[in-house]
Design goal:
single chain; FAD/NAD(P)-binding domain; 2 domains; 4-stranded parallel sheet; 11 helices; 26 strands; 22% strand; disordered C terminus
C-alpha cells in the first residue's frame, strides 16, 4: 500500500470503529485501527459475563482476525493519551502517530458524578475486566455466606444493590435475581440462596427512561414479578465497603454495582474542542468535530442532536455513524461536499430475565416472552464471528434447559486495573510483542512516527 495515500486513523475498535474500517476497505486510503485492547467487545452482552452466563471469549473477537482480509488496514494495540488536531498527531504512551483523517470512536467510561472514590466499592460495566471483577464479587458473596455464622453479616453478603435504572442496571438486577432463585438455589447447604435480596436504585421517576413510558412500566412490573426491589426517585448519597446510604436510610450490602452514569474518555479532553456536561465532543451534522476539519467523532462520544433529542449511545448509532464518517472521508478526498448524518432508529431492547424483556421497533412494542425471544435473536445475529454465535447459542440453550450458568469459575483479582496499567507491567515482554504491521504480514509502513512494539493495553 503506497505511503502517499491519505492516512486514516480510527481510534477505537468498538461497533463504530469496526464499521468505519470495513466501510473504507476499498477506499484509496491507508487505515490504522488503534485500540487500547486487542479485541472487539460485544458490549450489550457484557452483563452476561458479569452474571456468569457467558465466558469472556464468547462476546469478544480479536480485532486482527476481524480485519485480517483488509489489505489497506493495520491494527495497532496502543493507548492514546492525547490528540493534537493542529499537528494532526496522536500521542501514545511511547510514541506518536500522525494522521490525515481521524475517526474518534473511543466510547464512554463510567462517571460517578464527582465521587470517584465510589468506584472501588461499586464497579461499573464497560470492559471485560470489569465484568470479570463483578462476577468475582457476586460469586464470592455466596461463598462467604456459606461460611458465615452471623445472621446479620450473612444478610449483608446476600444483599445486592444495583445503581442505575437504564438497560445495564435493569439487566444486571434481573440476572442477579435469577442467579439467586435458579442458579444457586440447590448449591449450598448452610443457607437458602433464594433469600438473597436484589435492590435496583434509580434517581429518576421511571426505569429505562429512553423507552416509551408503558414499556418502562412493564419493565418495572416484570422486575417486581421476579422479586427485585426497585426504588425510583432515589439517589445514593454515599457508597462504601458496607453498603449504600440513601436519603435517611442505609442499605447494608457487600456487593454494589454501578450503572448510573457515563463520561467521555479522558483523551477527548485533550482535543481542545467544545464538550457537553458528560464530556461528549460537539460535532456538526456531518460528524466533524466543531472547529476542526479532519476529525470525525462517532458513537457515544459524539454530542449531536437530531429532531431536538441527543442521539442515543447505542450500537446502531455507532455503526451508522462509522459508515457515515467513512463516506465523508472519501467525499473529502474527492473534493466532494460532505453529507449530513441521519440516524435511523432500528429499535431498542432490554432483557429483564428468563422470558422477560421489553422491545420497541418503530411503532411496534413488545414485552414478555415475545420481546425476550426477539432480544435473543437480534443479539445472537449481531455478534461478530460464527464461533461466538455458535457458542452463545449453545450456552443459552443449556441455561434455558438446566437453569444453570456455566461460567462460574472465580478468578483472582488482577493486581492492577487494565484501565491504568501500562503494557510492560501486565503483559508480555517487549521483544515478544508484534511490531506495527499490516494485517497481511507485510512490512510496516512509516511515513509517520509509528508506535513502538511496547504500546499500552489501555
Amino acid at each position: 500500500m503506497s505511503a502517499e495515500l491519505p492516512h486514516v486513523v480510527i481510534l477505537g475498535a468498538g461497533f463504530g470503529g469496526l464499521a468505519a474500517a470495513k466501510a473504507l476497505k476499498n477506499a484509496p486510503v491507508r487505515v490504522t485501527v488503534l485500540d487500547k485492547r486487542n479485541h472487539h467487545l460485544f458490549q450489550p452482552l457484557l452483563y452476561q459475563v458479569a452474571s456468569a452466563a457467558l465466558a469472556s471469549t464468547d462476546i469478544a473477537a480479536a480485532t486482527r482476525v476481524v480485519l485480517k482480509r483488509q489489505k489497506n488496514t493495520t491494527v495497532m494495540m496502543a493507548r492514546a493519551i492525547a490528540i493534537d488536531p493542529t499537528r494532526k498527531v496522536i500521542t501514545l504512551e511511547d510514541g506518536e502517530l500522525t494522521y490525515d483523517f481521524l475517526i474518534v470512536a473511543a466510547g464512554m467510561t463510567n462517571s460517578y458524578f464527582g465521587h470517584d472514590e465510589w468506584a472501588e466499592h461499586a464497579p461499573g460495566l464497560k470492559s471485560l475486566e470489569e465484568a470479570l471483577d463483578i462476577r468475582r464479587r457476586i460469586l464470592l458473596a455466596y461463598e462467604a455466606a456459606e461460611r458465615e455464622t452471623d445472621a446479620e453479616a450473612r444478610k449483608e453478603l446476600l444483599t445486592f444493590v444495583v445503581i442505575g435504572g437504564g438497560p445495564t442496571g435493569v439487566e444486571l438486577a434481573g440476572a442477579l435475581q435469577e442467579i439467586a432463585q435458579r442458579t444457586m438455589a440447590k448449591n449450598f447447604r448452610n443457607f437458602d440462596p433464594t433469600k438473597a435480596r436484589v435492590i435496583l436504585i434509580e434517581g429518576g421517576p421511571r426505569l429505562l427512561a429512553a423507552f416509551p413510558e408503558d414499556l418502562s412500566e412493564s419493565a418495572l412490573t416484570q422486575l417486581k414479578h421476579l422479586g427485585v426491589e426497585a426504588r425510583l426517585n432515589t439517589r445514593a448519597k454515599n457508597i462504601d465497603a458496607r453498603g449504600v446510604t440513601l436519603d435517611g436510610e442505609h442499605i447494608a450490602a457487600r456487593t454494589v454495582l454501578w450503572g448510573a452514569g457515563v463520561a467521555g474518555v479522558p483523551v477527548a479532553k485533550t482535543m481542545g474542542v467544545p464538550t457537553d456536561r458528560s464530556g461528549r465532543i460537539a460535532v456538526d451534522e456531518t460528524l466533524v468535530a466543531k472547529g476542526l476539519s479532519s476529525v470525525y467523532v462517532i458513537g457515544d462520544l459524539a454530542a449531536l442532536e437530531q429532531d431536538g433529542v441527543q442521539l442515543p449511545g447505542v450500537a446502531q448509532n455507532a455503526i451508522q455513524g462509522g459508515r457515515a464518517a467513512a463516506r465523508n472521508i472519501v467525499h473529502s478526498i474527492r473534493n466532494e461536499p460532505l453529507v449530513a448524518y441521519r440516524y435511523k432508529d432500528l429499535g431498542s431492547m432490554a432483557t429483564i430475565g428468563r422470558s422477560h424483556a421489553v422491545a420497541v421497533v418503530g411503532k411496534l412494542k413488545f414485552k414478555g416472552v415475545i420481546a425476550w425471544f426477539a432480544w435473543l435473536f437480534v443479539h445472537l445475529m449481531a455478534l461478530v464471528g460464527h464461533r461466538n454465535r455458535l457458542m452463545v447459542f449453545l450456552e443459552w440453550a443449556f441455561a434455558y434447559v438446566s437453569f444453570n450458568r456455566s461460567a462460574r469459575i472465580i478468578l483472582e483479582r488482577p493486581v492492577k486495573s487494565m484501565e491504568t496499567a501500562p503494557l510492560s507491567r501486565v503483559s508480555l515482554p517487549k521483544a515478544a510483542l508484534p511490531s506495527p504491521a499490516t494485517t497481511d504480514g507485510a512490512a510496516p509502513r512509516a511515513p509517520e512516527k509509528p508506535a513502538s512494539a511496547a504500546a499500552s493495553l489501555a
